[in-house]
Amino acid sequence: MIDPKEAISEKAVLIGVITQQQDETQSDEYLDELEFLTSTAGGVAVKRFVQKMEKPNPKTFLGVGKLDEVRGYIESNGIGTAIFDDELSPAQIRNIEKVLDCKILDRTNLILDIFAQRAQSSSARTQVELAQCQYLLPRLTRLWTHLDKQKGGIGMRGPGETEIETDRRIIRDKIDVLKKKLLTIDKQMAVQRKNRGKMVRIALVGYTNVGKSTLMNVISKSDVFAENKLFATLDTTVRKVVIKNIPFLMTDTVGFIRKLPTQLVESFKSTLDEVREADLLLHVIDISHPNFEDHIASVNSVLQDIKCADKPTLMVFNKIDAFVHETIKEDDLVTEKTKEHYTLQDWKKTWMNDKEQTSIFISALNKENLEDFKEVVYEAVKTIHIQRFPYNDFLYNEYEGE
Ligand SMILES: Nc1nc2c(ncn2[C@@H]2O[C@H](COP(=O)(O)OP(=O)(O)OP(=O)(O)O)[C@@H](O)[C@H]2O)c(=O)[nH]1
Ligand SMILES: [Mg+2]
């Protein structure tokens, strides 16, 4: 298996494409994210290579000429790793490796690697390991490229194939074992969740690094690990929170990301069950991030994958303290007003103001607007609580201030 500690501890080049689906700005922002992922994994991105093309080359991702340029740079600068901003197919990895002769990582690889480094509990570790095995299985052949199976024929089919088959069987057996282990963990977790009784359950969801754990900490006065790195949280934390007269449970869980590897979504089933069984979702958004609308779309698509898209959801726009916008000078009559120029007030008048949804604007870090936040959450929880406990059986009396 890939040793998470050794996977990257070196200089890397980042490789992306500009296509019809993703323009130059987008491609830039995606590579910014890839760079953040790289540094979170412990690597340093020293250079970016970007190629304009209709779609990535199915054989080599980049075009042959561009790939050669990358090889030149890698050779003369002693770079050990090339990281591609997309999931590469087994054939692409094989072909690229032949040209670049260095470690080839793709986006999925990188994310799996970070997850592996960060997994603490036995459940998180098992889930990551399963995802890694599933990623590895179809890619095992790359170890055998030197046998050049295409030429095939006598001698080529024998030992090579058998060894790949043996390796595959080992990985398959491991996948079986891990799946069984996860089944047991799932059951334990389901029992734990059941034991929590009928209390209303809220789950924090959102893109990675938006401030979910920070919000959890200020609301529940707990101490969940939060830091400016991607995927600081992998394990689920549940805290009891009381607002006024209603106690409820709040869950902080793993953050989502664009192109979250499907293997991870699948194997993190027991973690995501927390989200699936929640009565209410708080979708936390980093409104100070230039790509926050993209982030919302990515999160919604994962929610759809895990069949949670229809759950009651409050949109919590966090980091209002860090929100900035471009301004157009009064005498500038040329520049058109675009989203980069929107003030917070402008934004609040957009789709965020939809009657269908509730939006709250806060800074978890500076504790701004938390009273409003609590009020809105309280009302939402109360509605669910009253439905669930028809005798209006509040655990505490609500005292109006005198
Ligand atoms: N400026 C500002 N920074 C914030 C705010 N809330 C959180 N942060 C910072 O954002 C970074 C990420 O915060 P976390 O709470 O770890 O984010 P998360 O959503 O739990 O991230 P993952 O667990 O990685 O998915 C930290 O450096 C926080 O200090 C805020 O309101 N304003
Ligand atoms: Mg977190």
From TrEMBL:
Pfam families referenced in this protein's UniProt entry, alphabetically: GTP-bdg_M (PF16360), GTP-bdg_N (PF13167), MMR_HSR1 (PF01926)
Gene Ontology molecular function terms on file: GTP binding; GTPase activity; metal ion binding; ribosome binding
Compartments reported by the entry: Cytoplasm
Residues annotated for GTP binding in this entry: 206-213, 231-235, 252-255, 318-321, 363-365
Cofactor: Mg(2+)
Binding site for Mg(2+): S213, T233
Keywords assigned by UniProt, alphabetized: Cytoplasm, GTP-binding, Magnesium, Metal-binding, Nucleotide-binding
Cellular component GO terms, alphabetical: cytoplasm
Domain Hflx-type G per the UniProt entry, residue ranges: 200-385
Family per similarity comment: Belongs to the TRAFAC class OBG-HflX-like GTPase superfamily. HflX GTPase family.
NCBIfam families, sorted: GTP_HflX, small_GTP
Function: GTPase that associates with the 50S ribosomal subunit and may have a role during protein synthesis or ribosome biogenesis.
Subunit details: Monomer. Associates with the 50S ribosomal subunit.
Family matches, as PANTHER family: GTP-BINDING PROTEIN 6-RELATED, GTP-BINDING PROTEIN HFLX
Protein name from the UniProt record: GTPase HflX
Provenance organism: Polaribacter irgensii 23-P
